[in-house]
Each structure stands twice: as C-alpha cells, then as structure tokens.
Amino acid sequence: xxxxxxxxxxxxxxxxxxxxxxxxxxxxxxxxxxxxxxxxxxxxxxxxxxxxxxxxxxxxxxxxxxxxxxxxxxxxxxxxxxxxxxxxxxxxxxxxxxxxxxxxxxxxxxxxxxxxxxxxxxxxxxxxxxxxxxxxxxxxxxxxxxxxxxxxxxxxxxxxxxxxxxxxxxxxxxxxxxxxxxxxxxxxxxxxxxxxxxxxxxxxxxxxxxxxxx
Length: 214
What we know:
It is built from 2 helices and 12 strands, in the order αββαββββββββββ. A 5-stranded antiparallel sheet has the order 3-2-1-5-6. It has helices at about 10-60, 90-95, and strands spanning about 65-75, 80-85, 110-120, 120-125, 130-135, 140-145, 155, 160, 165-170, 190-195, 200-205, 210-214. By secondary structure, the protein is α+β, with helices and mostly antiparallel strands.
C-alpha cells in the first residue's frame, strides 16, 4: 500500500520573505545594471559613428570618392549622422570650372546617403547642424556650422578642436559637456571621437581625469 505523503506548500510568511529578498537583490543590482546599460548605449553609438566616418574616409583614400561630407543633422529627434560623397568626375569638373567646394548642401553630391546613423538614447555636445569634409591628401579639408566652433580639448598632451563628444541622453534637450570634464558625473559614460584633416579617426573615453584612447 502506498503511504500517504505529507505535502505542504509555502506559508504566507515564507512567500513574504522571498518577495522581500527579491526586492532587496533588485534594488542592489539595478544601479549597476543601469550604469552598464548607459555605457553600452554610448559605447555602441561611438563605435557606429567611428565606423561610419572611417569607412567613407577609407573609400576616399582608395580613390572611390574624391570629396566627402559627414553631416550631423538635428532637424529631427533623434539626430542623424550621414555621409555624402562626390565622385572623381564631378570633383574634377567643379575644379576645372573653378566652382567652390563649401562643405555644404549647395554643391552636388553624387551619393547623398553613403551611410546613416540615428542617435537613439545618446546626445552630443552640439544640438545644431555641423559638417566636416575630407578629400584625399587633405587638400580640401573643411568644417562648417557647430563643428567649426569647438573649444579645445586636451588629448594625449595635445590640444584638439576636431571632435564630437557623445554621452547618454537623459532628456530631449540633453547636451554633453564641452569643458570642465572633471566635474562631470564619473558614473555617466562620456566618449569622444576625434579626427585629423588627413582622415585619421580616433576614439577616446573619459576616465574621470583624462581622455583615454580606445
């Protein structure tokens, strides 16, 4: 004969203890998760913008394009980063006709959308349009808009004003800091993408004291 089994469920007190423990663990773990997610979002954005810039600049150095523009557009939310390109034939024609290359939209771009990135969950240190243009050999490097008004930052003991700063977007009008970085909350991720007129693109992260190259 099968013996009767003494089967019991959880008591109300035991359930309350379990729920309380879950709440405590969640409360302790959430700040770390939130910090990790913010850093992940900003890091991913910096990698995508870096890749967008590096890719089209490499195509220019290889001769696929002769003149390119990277545009930071804030017409809509989220902002967009778009690369535009001019072919060798269009570029040569403009130079032969002595027409200006003004790094703007008044000139004909053969490819007006080589690559595009939308800045979800992140903000920049600017919120108005800015463009940077490159050509092979840096002969026609140019900046327009907000990118032509950057304050100097110190990167590896050198001052630089060709960069974009990326941070986590807390609200619609969030702006990343342009200076006084040491006063910025150390728990908030801050990344920087810098470039030279020769198309060398670099990535940095603020470690609380200096910009550290990645």
